[in-house]
């Protein structure tokens, strides 16, 4: 199709020929130089461009997602997460579903609690759970710790009676036969053989290095239950399996060499008295049948009585049970409620007692101080920005350094400067005494209160007000004010009606910036704020490092984050993120 | 802004009052920083001017707090940690940040606003929240209390500054230069280092300086993510201010003020150079 009358008589794919071909084709699509439709070709090149741009951004995006966004997401998750109760006390939580919420729970619930606590104590989880629930009801922590100490006594009476019935019950091997699966027994025997061989080889080693190299470090295979006893004796099997796990993982011992905990005998007693165990037809069926016939005449010690009389009478307190029940779900709004001075009680959501309503006050104070700092920044920043934008460039650049120097100076340097200046024996008080404004024995308290925080933070955040204001004011043409004056406005009216409205966007930008920064400040309030001049952020830090109530810290942090994001959205709408200037 | 010859008395009074007010505000801005400099030469362990200092008695001044800073092992460890952590974090954020800024400044980037919002977020989120989140998450994955953890955290905090300064420099970048370079046979990598990089270098360096100062000055995140082994200079100052307040802090503060003056000058010079360079390039 190429014309031989081409100026250069060049045949093949050139842009000119493509255009000519396209012209000739009546209705065909416009073609690119290589003959593909132009549309497809453009789409492909756009796609390549997009992919290349994304390829350049991807490493950083992944980096930020992992190092920054994931931590924030983790914090949000922690503010509602509450798996510790249902994980540590699974049986109790299940039994508590039947509880009426007022009386002392029944024997079954206490049996479940004893089993859960015995395992938790062995895994050393009960103190953690105690301190978690202690945030909600004081006293639970010590109750759990004390109860943990008594747990190995539960079921002892049955242990003795079973052993009296037949000494075989004392033998770990009896329990192995009853509980372990055949697969596991084979695997364990194989492991034992391997171990013996390895030890023999080690003994035969001539040098110490060789002996170390030959050391047998493989742990025993993880214990497995057999199917029959799991069905026939569900409780005993469930506890025995956890016993075996604890023995293997915590004590690094073998369940085949350890006598089970007393609580296992308790579970066996429960299973047998409930009429279970008939389905068992394994090797020691005779022993089990004998036991099943005998349990009816066993001396019975109810777990409930043991808890209430021997362990701690606090277990009769419905408050304790209510707390466990209220926090048994894997996710909770409890931390958020606590951040708003409410609490989750067995009776539902209630207001915190008057003397414990600290967070409302703290949020109010944070707001109040941030607003005060913001207004002080406007009052001090506006004249400076006005002066800078109206001076000749050379002078204003020089004066701008006076604004930028504090901006660039380390935050801690500025904070330490204020700490030094504001002390009772500090420079400011010295000068005031020297002038005679203040009596020497009546020096002003400028630090470790709200005054200190407000003064220091106004100074620290002032550049963040001046810089956006200055950049807006620089663009206000001076002739508007002149025109207003020539039309008869007084200087004040000209300023109020003409100049000021044009500078409002700068005020808006500066205010939001200062407010966002102020509301999340930590270091300065911590150092100069004392007890009355601290922000919500100081409370968050306190909960992370001192009280260890991470959930509450995460909830407070989430609220603060939501607040900042809303403000930031406003800032984006008013100013735009791309206009963030760094001076 | 000059006083016109026809100004009324009231205007004259206001003109001078306004200047005095501005002078006072400038004084408020700069005086606290300047006060600590002479105080750091105090011969006594006081935080205020002794009568001897006011009388300009040479004996009332001394370098003992500076000596303490350079001999005290705690301060030296902190200084060393700071010097090790800040450059590593800066390097990480500058290299990743510049690459991403180049990508972001291309004409067709899908979901540009969302990506930008994510990359800028470390600057927006209050430090205490970043610190809390990082503490929780890094202790989950075993980075809490490690050098790597602190460097990663500081790099994340410095990235928005690199992104902002470098994309700002790239706004005025003339793309026909890269096309010309490609036309002359240079590959993308060669084009980047030979054509693009020299032109955006001022932006990259000032972004890097911001990232450096962010890490060097950062205390909240390192308090939570770091352990005693990563104690940085600001951390040591923080402890010093909270517990055993000693005038050595003022000596350290003076040194930091000098450093920030040096950095400020560098950034200002770079900004001027960048403007000059971009003024030269055809637009």
Automatic annotation (TrEMBL), chain A:
PANTHER family: ABC TRANSPORTER PERMEASE PROTEIN, INNER MEMBRANE ABC TRANSPORTER PERMEASE PROTEIN YDCU-RELATED-RELATED. This is Putative spermidine/putrescine transport system permease protein. Belongs to the binding-protein-dependent transport system permease family. CysTW subfamily. It holds the Pfam family BPD_transp_1. CDD domains: TM_PBP2. GO terms for cellular component: plasma membrane. It is found in: Cell membrane. The keyword Membrane applies. The chain crosses the membrane at residues 53-73, 367-388, 395-413, 454-472, 504-523, 550-571. It comes from Palleronia salina. It is a multi-pass membrane protein. GO terms for biological process: transmembrane transport.
UniProtKB/TrEMBL annotation, chain B:
Keywords: Cell inner membrane, Cell membrane, Membrane, Transmembrane, Transmembrane helix, Transport. It is found in: Cell inner membrane; Cell membrane. Its main location: membrane. It holds the Pfam family BPD_transp_1. GO terms for biological process: transmembrane transport. Gene3D superfamilies: MetI-like (1.10.3720.10). CDD domains: TM_PBP2. Residues 79-267 form the ABC transmembrane type-1 domain. It comes from the Bacteria. InterPro entries: MetI-like, MetI-like_sf. The chain crosses the membrane at residues 20-41, 85-104, 116-138, 150-173, 199-225, 245-270. GO terms for cellular component: plasma membrane. PROSITE patterns: ABC_TM1. It is a multi-pass membrane protein. Belongs to the binding-protein-dependent transport system permease family. This is Putative spermidine/putrescine transport system permease protein.
């Amino acid at each position: 199709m190429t014309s031989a009358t081409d100026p250069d008589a060049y045949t093949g794919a050139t842009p000119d020929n493509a255009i000519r071909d396209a012209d000739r084709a009546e209705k065909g699509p416009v073609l690119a130089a290589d003959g593909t439709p132009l549309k497809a070709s453009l789409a492909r090149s756009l796609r390549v461009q997009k992919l290349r741009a994304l390829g350049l951004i991807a490493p950083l995006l992944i980096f930020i997602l992992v190092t920054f966004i994931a931590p924030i997401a983790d914090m949000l998750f922690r503010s509602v997460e509450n798996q510790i109760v249902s994980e540590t006390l699974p049986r109790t939580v299940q039994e508590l579903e039947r509880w009426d919420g007022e009386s002392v729970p029944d024997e079954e619930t206490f049996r479940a609690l004893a089993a859960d606590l015995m395992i938790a104590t062995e895994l050393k989880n009960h103190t953690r759970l105690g301190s978690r629930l202690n945030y909600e009801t004081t006293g639970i922590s010590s109750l759990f710790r004390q109860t943990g100490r008594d747990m190995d006594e539960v079921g002892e009476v049955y242990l003795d009676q079973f052993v009296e019935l037949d000494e075989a019950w004392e033998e770990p091997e009896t329990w192995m036969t009853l509980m372990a699966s055949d697969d596991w027994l084979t695997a364990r025997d194989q492991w034992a053989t391997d171990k013996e061989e390895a030890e023999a080889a080690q003994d035969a080693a001539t040098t110490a290095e060789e002996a170390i190299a030959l050391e047998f470090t493989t742990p025993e295979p993880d214990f497995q239950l057999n199917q029959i006893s799991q069905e026939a004796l569900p409780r005993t099997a469930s506890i025995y399996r956890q016993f075996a796990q604890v023995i293997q993982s915590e004590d690094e011992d073998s369940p085949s060499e350890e006598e089970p905990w007393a609580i296992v005998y308790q579970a066996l007693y429960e299973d047998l008295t409930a009429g279970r165990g008939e389905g068992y037809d394994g090797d020691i069926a005779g022993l089990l049948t004998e036991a099943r016939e005998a349990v009816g005449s066993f001396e019975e010690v109810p777990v409930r009585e043991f808890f209430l009389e021997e362990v701690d009478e606090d277990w009769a307190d419905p408050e304790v049970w209510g707390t466990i029940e209220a926090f048994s779900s894997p996710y909770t709004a409890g931390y958020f409620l606590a951040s708003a001075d409410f609490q989750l009680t067995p009776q539902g959501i209630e207001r915190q007692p008057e003397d414990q309503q600290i967070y409302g006050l703290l949020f109010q104070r944070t707001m109040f101080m941030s607003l005060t700092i913001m207004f002080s920044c406007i009052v001090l920043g506006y004249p400076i920005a006005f002066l800078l934008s109206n001076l000749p460039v050379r002078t204003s650049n020089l004066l701008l350094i006076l604004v930028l120097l504090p901006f660039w100076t380390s935050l801690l340097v500025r904070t330490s400067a204020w700490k030094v200046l504001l002390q009772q024996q500090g420079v400011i008080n010295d000068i005031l005494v020297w002038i005679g404004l203040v009596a020497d024995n009546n020096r002003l308290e400028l630090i470790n209160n709200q005054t200190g925080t407000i003064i220091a933070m106004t100074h620290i955040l002032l550049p963040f007000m001046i810089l956006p204001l200055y950049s807006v004011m620089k663009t206000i043409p001076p002739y508007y004010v002149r025109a207003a004056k020539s039309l008869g406005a007084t200087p004040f009216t000209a300023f109020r009606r003409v100049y000021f409205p044009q500078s409002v966007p700068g005020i808006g930008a500066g205010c939001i910036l200062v407010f966002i920064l102020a509301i999340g400040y930590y270091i300065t309030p911590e150092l100069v704020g004392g007890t009355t001049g601290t922000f919500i952020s100081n409370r968050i830090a306190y909960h992370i490092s001192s009280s260890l109530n991470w959930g509450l810290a995460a909830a407070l942090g989430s609220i603060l984050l939501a607040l900042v994001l809303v403000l930031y959205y406003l800032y984006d709408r008013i100013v735009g993120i791309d206009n963030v200037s760094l001076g | 802004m000059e006083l016109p010859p026809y100004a009324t008395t009231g205007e004259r009074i206001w003109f001078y009052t306004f200047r005095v007010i501005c002078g006072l505000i400038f004084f408020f801005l700069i005086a606290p920083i300047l006060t600590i400099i002479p105080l750091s030469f105090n011969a006594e362990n006081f935080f205020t001017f002794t009568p001897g200092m006011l009388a300009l008695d040479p004996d009332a001044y001394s370098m003992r707090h500076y000596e303490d800073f350079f001999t005290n092992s705690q301060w030296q460890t902190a200084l060393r940690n700071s010097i090790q952590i800040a450059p590593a974090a800066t390097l990480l954020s500058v290299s990743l940040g510049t690459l991403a800024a180049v990508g972001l400044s291309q004409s067709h980037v899908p979901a540009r606003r969302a990506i930008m919002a994510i990359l800028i977020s470390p600057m927006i989120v209050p430090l205490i929240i970043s610190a809390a989140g990082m503490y929780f998450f890094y202790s989950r994955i075993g980075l809490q209390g490690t050098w790597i953890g602190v460097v990663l955290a500081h790099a994340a905090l410095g990235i928005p500054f690199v992104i902002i300064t470098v994309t700002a420099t790239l706004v005025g970048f003339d793309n026909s230069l890269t096309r010309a370079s490609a036309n002359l046979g240079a590959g993308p990598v060669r084009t980047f280092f030979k054509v693009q990089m020299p032109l955006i270098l001022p932006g990259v360096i000032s972004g890097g300086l911001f990232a450096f100062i962010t890490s060097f000055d950062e205390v909240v995140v390192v308090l939570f993510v770091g352990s005693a082994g990563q104690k940085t200079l600001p951390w040591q100052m923080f402890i010093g201010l909270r517990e055993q307040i000693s005038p050595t802090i003022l000596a350290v503060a003076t040194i930091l003020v000098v450093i920030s003056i040096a950095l400020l000058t560098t950034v200002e010079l770079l900004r001027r150079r960048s403007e000059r360079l971009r003024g030269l390039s055809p637009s």
